[in-house]
Write a structure and sequence with these properties.
alpha/beta, Jelly Rolls, Immunoglobulin-like, TIM Barrel, six-stranded antiparallel beta sheet, 9 helices, 31 strands, about 35% strand, binds alpha-D-galactopyranuronic acid
Length: about 575
């Protein structure tokens, strides 16, 4: 399943899912004599019993049949973490980062059988500045769908639609990119339609080998607002009109009309104050790794809604389009962030860091910018925001986001407390704090101190979010003494944190670390602080079995927290 809706009605599209041949290889480009394995796509190789800890390069191979001479467009929605794609033995694409999509366009493909070879590499080293040994796992393989499309020489590359609200009326700012891969200039029409509300037409000319941008603003004065209570979605459709009014290509997406802005210390959604109550979520499942099936994603959404959350943070990378589709559909608000976790200044000085980080940021905003559910863009979780060099990078990335999308507030989650040098650069100040777990601080007191740091360090008068807090809780580990690591102690710590944060009316958000337990890398000492090589701060375990803390959080988020947790006073310390 590619998306929750058809992205094309005219352009022929098919998903290349199913079993592909697979073989571990030494490097991209190497063709083995034989293939020992057949693995699912989408999927990650760790789900195979022989390959549960394989780190290196793996080759996925399959053939396709083409029944007429045509141009092909292959889209890989996410390959972890470096992809090299070959078509009939010829390299056609290279891409770094597991969490954004990339394409390859192949011209004039002859009818017959053709081979697609996808090399995926999940190895660590200087070549990979963002995927490093970390407190989550970098799996290997095509963790998201692979799509095959047939395109004409002139086709629609991308359409963005930004809703705007002015003088009590909605309008929409269209921006369509039309590309010409042919050898002749082309003049085409472009029909831009929004569900029955309007259709507009523009003409454009595209030189060979070039792209043209068509921009237009339309008024939609009867549009219904998208909100968590009523997530009204509209379908936008761009149609490319060739000679004799023939529709040559199309591009379909879903959008929603909603406003998100900060006003002093408040965040406002559609003009009304919103407080984010939610969870941080990794794309990780004990059964399927980072390649969650659609039904596993939907199950996560159902659990998150059942918890009483209105928000999910895509820690620490852009998420699967199908998961975001579900958020659009169910009215769940999303904090989406670029890919990075806990990079020191030295790691941010990796010669590949700047380019790799800029690419994933740009791709995230370009690929996900139409979604009403995304209300915050964030960068660089817990990186070196306490150094001068770090500040340079935070500034660059936050400015890049602003230049690509001025419509959403930006933030970053910091653990640098009173040492942070970047709080003035973001629209929202966000702190990761772990009182009760890593420190013995009182959550209410710490939150007030955090407000003080924000006020002193350039974040005065801006909204504040507690973007992470939590505690380990090993599923099934019970303790009458409520020791650290027990389900009971996890309940206590979350209870203390949530009681303090939710009682404070000035806070704009509380996001629990984390929704589900996730696998972590064995390298780099993570093993020492992560029993069973898992980060066990989930409200559910890797298989989605709710821990006792699930109900603690559920009571708070649903406003039923005066019901005390069982046995609370029994802690022996
Ligand atoms: C950090 C980090 C998370 C996770 C968490 C923890 O603040 O942002 O990715 O590592 O702490 O469990 O300690």
């Amino acid at each position: 399943m590619i998306r929750l809706f058809d992205t094309h009605a005219i352009r022929p599209v098919r998903e290349l899912d199913g079993l592909w041949d697979f073989q571990p290889v030494g490097r991209a480009g190497e063709m083995p004599q034989q293939f020992e394995y057949r693995l699912p796509v989408p999927g990650c190789w760790e789900t195979h019993p022989d390959l549960g800890t394989y780190r290196g390069t793996g080759l996925y191979r399959r053939t396709i049949n083409v029944n007429r001479r045509t141009n092909l467009r292959l889209e890989f929605k996410g390959v972890s973490h470096t992809a090299d794609v070959y078509f009939d033995g010829r390299p056609i694409a290279h891409h770094y980062n597991a969490y954004t999509a990339f394409e390859a366009v192949i011209r004039d493909v002859e009818p017959g059988e053709h081979e697609i070879a996808l090399y995926a590499d999940n190895s660590f080293g200087e070549h990979s500045a963002l995927h490093i040994p970390n407190d989550y796992y970098t799996y290997g393989g095509p963790i998201r769908p692979v799509v095959l499309e047939e395109i004409e020489d002139v086709f629609i590359e991308r359409v963005s639609f930004r809703p705007e609200w002015a003088n009590g009326t909605w309008s929409g700012r269209w921006r369509a990119v039309v590309r010409n891969i042919g050898e002749h200039a082309a003049a085409v029409g472009l029909r831009l339609g929004l569900d029955g509300l309007h259709t507009a037409r523009e003409e454009c000319r595209i030189e060979p080998g070039q792209s043209s941008v068509v921009e237009r603003t339309e008024i939609y004065d009867t549009a219904e607002e998208w909100s968590p209570e009523r997530p009204a979605l509209y379908t936008i459709r761009a149609e490319l009109i060739r000679e004799q009014e023939r529709a040559g290509d199309d591009w379909i997406d879903r959008i929603g009309f909603r406003r998100i802005e900060t006003a002093g210390e408040e965040i406002r959604l559609n003009g009304r104050r919103v407080v984010f109550k939610g969870v941080n979520r990794h794309e990780d499942h004990a059964r399927s790794g980072a390649a969650l099936s659609f039904s596993e994603m939907l199950h996560d959404i159902e659990l998150i809604r059942d918890l009483g959350c209105n928000t999910v943070r895509t820690s620490h990378y852009p998420n699967d389009e199908r998961f975001l589709d579900l958020c659009d559909e169910f009215g769940l608000l999303v904090w989406e962030e670029n890919h990075a976790r806990g990079l020191s200044e030295e790691q941010m000085r990796n010669p590949n860091f700047r380019k790799q980080s800029e690419d994933v940021t740009r791709e995230m905003v370009e690929q996900h910018g139409n979604r009403p559910s995304i209300v915050i863009w964030a960068v660089l979780n817990e990186c070196a925001s306490d150094t001068e060099y770090g500040r340079e990078i935070y500034k660059e990335e936050l400015e890049l986001i602003r230049s690509l999308d001025p419509s959403r507030p930006r933030t970053f989650a910091t653990h640098n407390r009173e040492r942070d040098l970047c709080l003035d650069l973001a629209d929202i100040v966000s702190f990761n704090l772990y009182p009760g777990w890593y420190t013995d601080e009182d959550p209410g007191e710490l939150m007030r101190r955090a407000r003080g740091w924000a006020d002193r360090l350039g974040g005065a008068g801006r909204p504040m979010i507690i973007s992470e807090f939590g505690a380990d809780g090993y599923y099934g580990f019970r303790s009458r003494e409520r020791v650290k690591g027990s389900e009971e102690r996890q309940c206590d710590i979350l209870d203390d944190n949530l009681s303090a944060y939710l009682a404070d009316e000035s806070l704009s958000g509380v996001l629990v670390w984390q929704f589900g337990d996730c696998r972590v890398s064995e390298d780099n000492g993570w093993l020492l602080s992560r029993g069973c090589t898992r980060n066990s701060k989930g409200l559910v375990d890797g298989y989605r079995r709710p821990k006792a803390a699930y109900d603690t959080v559920r009571r708070h988020f649903r406003g039923e927290a005066d019901i005390p947790s069982a046995g609370r006073n029994a802690r022996a310390e």
